[in-house]
Amino acid sequence: MDERPIGVFDSGTGGLTVVKALRDLLPDEKIFYLGDTARVPYGGKSASTVERYSLEIADILIEENAKIVVVACNTASSLALPKLEKHLPVAVIGVIRPGARAAVAATRNDHIGVIGTRATIKSGAYERELRALNPDIRISVRACPLLVPLIEEAWLNDELTDRVIGRYLEPLVREGIDTLVLGCTHYPLLVDALSRALGERVKLVDSAHNCATAVRELLDRQEFRAPSGTLGGLEIALTDTPDNFLRVAREALQLEIGEIQLREVLHGAATL
Ligand code: DGL
């Protein structure tokens, strides 16, 4: 039994989709969420920058006494997980492995599609995880950099968004995927639009939900669950003013978001 908070971080507020899944699955847990809104987006940045930012942000979660650190960002999970695992004094969970596992379990024709930011796709992280689980799997990937801004504009059910999705996904559908991994924490809000574009033939794998399940398994394994009946809760801190997604997430995810705190990133604080 452990009443310390689960530390969750993202480049901005996109990781609130993971928080929503965690709140639903683990209502007794306290969550401390930190969004690096001063430096979002991570999706177009280099691997070394994303590693450095992730270590600096995770250090703040350790100061907040986090019992585990959840990397609620596909870009940071793709590029910084090994460094975080090496340097943090607590267990670290990213979104890539849980999403890959769920995709391999879901596919019937062993052909999986993955969409994400440019950095996530370029890293090849999903391909590595998927191939480790099934070396014969076929994988079609596509970076979709226009989707995050459309989601932040709250154009979730919009003709223009449908057209952009159609254009991005057309090659993946043509190649024959039957499962699509939503490899960015913003994308769960596009589930309706993606389902419209793909129909019932393609299953959607939401990394937020699968990450929450992996967190529950880890807490059980380490006997780190909060005592049942404890009042769980959510604290949100940002490194700058909220980005647009906060408003969208509050409405679409129906998350209780109290007062937002501010945290300063101490450059070089990270144990690189
Ligand atoms: N949260 C990021 C991800 O899941 C998307 C936003 C960004 O580019 O920082 O990849």
Can you characterise this structure?
It contains 11 helices and 10 strands. The protein has 272 residues and is of the alpha/beta class. The protein folds into 2 domains: 152 residues, Rossmann fold; 112 residues, Rossmann fold (3-Layer(aba) Sandwich). The protein has a 6-stranded parallel beta sheet with strand order 4-3-1-2-9-10, with helices on both faces. The protein has a 4-stranded parallel beta sheet with strand order 6-5-7-8, sandwiched between helices. The two termini are 31 Å apart. The mean pLDDT is 94. The structure holds D-glutamic acid (DGL).
Which range best describes the helical content: under 10%, 10-25%, 25-40%, 40-55%, 55-70% or over 70%?
Answer: 40-55%
Task: Report the major sheet.
Answer: 6 strands, parallel
CATH hierarchy: architecture of the largest domain: 3-Layer(aba) Sandwich
Order of helices and strands: EHEHEHEHEHHEHHEHEHEHE
What fraction of residues sit in β-strands?
A: 15-25%
Low-confidence runs of at least 5 consecutive residues: none
Cofactors and ligands: D-glutamic acid
Across the major sheet, the strand order is 4-3-1-2-9-10
CATH fold type of the largest domain: Rossmann fold
Q: What's the CATH class of the largest domain, please?
A: Alpha Beta
Q: Report the average pLDDT across residues.
A: 94
- How many whole angstroms does the radius of gyration measure? 18 Å
Overall geometry comes to globular
Number of helices: 11
